[in-house]
Specification:
The protein folds into two domains: about 110 residues, Phosphorylase Kinase, domain 1, CATH 3.30.200; about 190 residues, Aminoglycoside 3'-phosphotransferase, Chain: A, domain 2. The chain is built from nine helices and nine strands. The longest helix has 20 residues. A five-stranded antiparallel sheet has the order 1-2-3-5-4. A two-stranded antiparallel ribbon has the order 6-9. The radius of gyration is 20 Å and the shape is globular. About 45% of the residues lie in helices and about 15% in strands. With about 325 residues, it is α+β, with helices and mostly antiparallel strands.
Length: about 325
């Protein structure tokens, strides 16, 4: 569990737990001893003694609204349930409640089957990166509709850069000007599938996890599970390896060849890395709400300054 003990965070956590408990009880669950498992952008609560985990998004990017959050959550539930039904090792929606987001107390909440974590296992992120190719192979057959490149969150980036215009304490004017210029170069290719396909001909699009799956593999006593599909989308497989570096890219390529899939394309990697870095800059807009983010984002900002403008896309 991530614990940032400020009055603002404590109040947000309490409200999220109360909403999760009330919503769970409203669905017929017995909840006597709720336990917070994680708290950062979402509060994740084990609704003990029920074998159910509630996830409550609490820190949302600018431009988000309850309807867009619920749509994203429904896609996550649908994809996770479909993968589980195919035998893919994923965290699955709880079978004890309907597989849909529930709104309560201003929150949109999803419910998942509780699994016992293996807290003694150290993650092997390189092995995880190789296994992402297995996940991609499994996801290729997903039959439902998914939005194109939605994990890039173009509305949120635009709105966040506008917010940062009012926060010179978080980013100086020169950096913000560069971010805006980069976004003018990159935004068309995350907002339009046709524009992407013209720029990257021959690159296939498929369902992808959307949120760095090598870091979102849950170690349980019964084995590893792919988790947190809340940014699932239609996009290039490169998106799921963004910003991880050559060792992880090589590991993914080993898994891709094993699955008879294409290896990572360098030009698409440069593009998704540039978008990912810009998303990091945009996340500075959440620092007033979640101050602890600044210590994690500062190194990312320093790295961004040293990288080619828009990942070389403007050349």
């Amino acid at each position: 569990m991530t614990d940032f003990a400020t009055p603002q965070n404590a109040a947000r956590r309490t409200a999220a737990v109360d909403a999760a408990v009330a919503a769970g009880r409203g669905l017929g669950l017995t909840v006597d001893d709720p336990k917070v498992l994680h708290d950062l952008f979402s509060v994740v609560v084990h609704l003990a003694p029920a074998p159910v985990v509630a996830r409550v998004p609490t820190v949302l990017p600018p431009g988000s609204d309850p309807d867009s959050v619920a749509l994203r959550q429904q896609a996550e539930l649908d994809v996770s349930r479909w993968l589980a039904d195919q035998g893919t090792p994923v965290t699955r929606p709880s079978p004890l409640v309907p597989a849909r987001p529930v709104r309560h107390g201003g929150h949109s909440i999803t419910f998942w089957a509780w699994v016992e974590e293996d807290h003694g296992k150290e993650p092997d992120y390189v092995a995880n990166a190789e296994s992402v190719a297995d996940l991609h192979a499994a996801m290729r057959g997903y039959p439902g509709p998914l939005p194109f490149m939605s994990a890039a969150e173009p509305r949120a980036i635009t709105a966040s850069l506008d917010v940062l215009d009012r926060h010179p304490d978080l980013i100086d004017a020169a950096d913000l000007d560069r971010a805006r210029r980069e976004w003018r170069v990159l935004e068309p290719f995350v907002s339009s599938r046709a524009a992407f396909e013209r720029r990257f001909p021959g690159i296939d699009l498929q369902p992808v996890h959307g949120d760095s799956p090598p870091a979102n593999i849950l170690a349980t006593v019964d084995g590893d599970l792919y988790a947190d599909f809340e940014l699932v989308m239609l996009g290039p497989v490169e998106w799921d390896l963004a910003a991880l570096g050559p060792e992880y890219e090589a590991a993914y390529d080993r898994g891709a060849r094993r699955n008879g899939m294409r290896t990572l394309d360098p030009d698409v990697l440069a593009f998704v890395n540039a978008v990912g870095r810009l998303r990091g800059i945009a996340t500075l807009a959440l620092v007033p709400e979640l101050p602890v983010l600044l210590q994690y984002l500062k190194p990312a900002v320093d790295q961004w300054r040293s990288e080619p403008f828009a990942g070389g896309m403007a050349d």
